[in-house]
Design goal:
By secondary structure, this protein is α+β, with helices and mostly antiparallel strands. Helices cover 49% and strands 12% of the residues.
């Protein structure tokens, strides 16, 4: 579970996003990160039973993303992220491809999964898989509990025009226009602080698992 001091640190970082404050509170950051890593390790134990594609080499400390922002090409020059991001990739130990993602930020917590903004070759392969086997994808995303947890999959970020090689009257054109193939479920601070937080997150990931399988098969 995530402890209140971890959330307190992130909340205060929003108002003090500068190097002097961060360095003065480096011990708090390190304790918060250790808390997040511990939750991730607990979650991984459950996730290996849900998704066999998760690498046995994954460790919590490798899955927790850096808090330092890359500000080289950003107008926002604040040096630190105000959240902890945890990525569980399903294609080895590197980011990219179908994955599970946990976002820890006070009042803005969520669990997500799928494939965000696939590279061109993967995007083409996923669209082809949808065109050939849309019934398989729709069986996943139109299942009532899936819709209740994650909303309408078709509402994701889309092209404004019809993708190349597909006709406007294709019955699955709204799925084919998608640029990302992700789902998201918001969590409460209470849920993430519960002793059963890892179990709650793993259960949600189990509902995302069939979508990730579909996406992995498409790019295999």
């Amino acid at each position: 579970m995530i402890q209140q001091p971890t959330l307190d640190f992130l909340s205060e970082l929003v108002e003090n996003n500068n190097r002097d404050w961060f360095m003065a509170n480096k011990g708090r950051y390190e304790a918060a990160r250790e808390n997040v890593v511990a939750l991730t390790d607990e979650l991984l134990k459950l996730m290996h039973k849900i998704d066999p594609a998760l690498s046995p080499d994954l460790e919590g400390k490798k899955c927790v993303m850096r808090i330092y922002r890359d500000i080289r090409f950003s107008k926002d020059k604040t040096p630190y992220k105000t959240n902890f991001g945890i990525s569980l990739p399903t294609t080895g130990t590197k980011l990219g491809g179908a994955e599970y993602y946990l976002h820890i930020q006070p009042g803005k917590l969520f669990i997500a999964g799928g494939y965000w903004m696939p590279e061109a070759t993967h995007l083409k392969a996923i669209r082809q898989e949808i065109d050939y086997n849309a019934h398989d994808l729709k069986a996943i995303i139109d299942e009532p509990e899936f819709v209740k947890l994650f909303g309408d999959f078709r509402d994701g970020e889309k092209l404004k025009t019809v993708p190349r090689d597909y006709a406007p009257d294709n019955e699955n054109i709204e799925l084919l226009k998608l640029k990302s193939f992700i789902v998201l479920h918001n969590l409460t601070d209470k849920e993430i602080k519960s002793p059963k937080a890892a179990e709650t997150i793993a259960e949600l990931c189990s509902k995302i698992y069939p979508l990730n399988v579909f996406l992995r098969n498409a790019i295999a």
